[in-house]
């Protein structure tokens, strides 16, 4: 087996460290969906699918800020990525609003350097969820302002909207969504190498 352990794709010049942050957890369950399902469970399921896909890509090393239902502080989440000297931090959330008719996908960034990355991931994500495209927005969420690396926060859809939530809780929709997130991340880094 002469090629064992060798990186076969010759173009892989660098491995990018990607930190996937499953929003909420433990004493902070996050939003309550229409069905009573909590946001922390959704974000963990989707994050694990994203990490599984990232690990199949030779150009990425994937990390998680939590791997079970435990509480991790907002500063600590960003710090995990900073300590790793990560290339990108992607925080995954499900949205909530008092009006159950409000639905859609939105992506947040804070530092201007993160905007092209946010756009790339959002484009894939919004197209794939099939939800209303609510766009890319700048906001000073703590996990973003404390990050020293590219950082985005994805609000995949509204757990308080029955239609969004039904999709978000389906395994098939989660697999497609995870694929879209990874495609967006990959596109950004591949384009940067060219
Ligand atoms: Zn959240």
UniProtKB/TrEMBL annotation:
UniProt keyword terms in alphabetical order: Hydrolase
Transmembrane residue ranges: none
Domain MurNAc-LAA intervals: 78-186
SMART domains the UniProt entry points to: Ami_3
Gene3D superfamilies named in the record: Zn-dependent exopeptidases (3.40.630.40)
Protein name: MurNAc-LAA domain-containing protein
């Amino acid at each position: 087996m002469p090629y064992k352990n060798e990186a076969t794709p010759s173009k892989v010049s660098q491995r990018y460290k990607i930190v996937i942050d499953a929003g909420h957890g433990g004493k902070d369950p996050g939003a309550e969906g229409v069905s009573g399902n909590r946001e922390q469970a959704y974000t963990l399921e989707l994050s694990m699918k994203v990490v599984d896909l990232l690990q199949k890509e030779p150009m990425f090393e994937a990390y998680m800020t939590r791997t079970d239902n435990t509480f991790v502080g907002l500063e600590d989440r960003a710090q995990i990525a900073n300590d790793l000297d990560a290339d990108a931090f992607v925080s995954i959330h499900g949205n909530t609003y008092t009006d159950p008719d409000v639905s859609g996908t939105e992506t947040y960034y804070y530092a201007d350097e993160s905007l092209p990355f946010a756009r790339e991931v959002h484009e894939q994500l919004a197209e794939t969820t099939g939800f209303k495209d609510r766009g890319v927005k700048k906001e000073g969420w703590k996990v973003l302002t404390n990050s020293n690396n590219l950082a985005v926060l994805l609000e995949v859809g509204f757990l308080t909207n029955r239609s969004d939530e039904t999709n978000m809780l389906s395994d098939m929709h989660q697999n497609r969504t995870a694929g879209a997130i990874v495609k967006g991340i990959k596109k950004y880094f591949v384009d940067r190498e060219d």
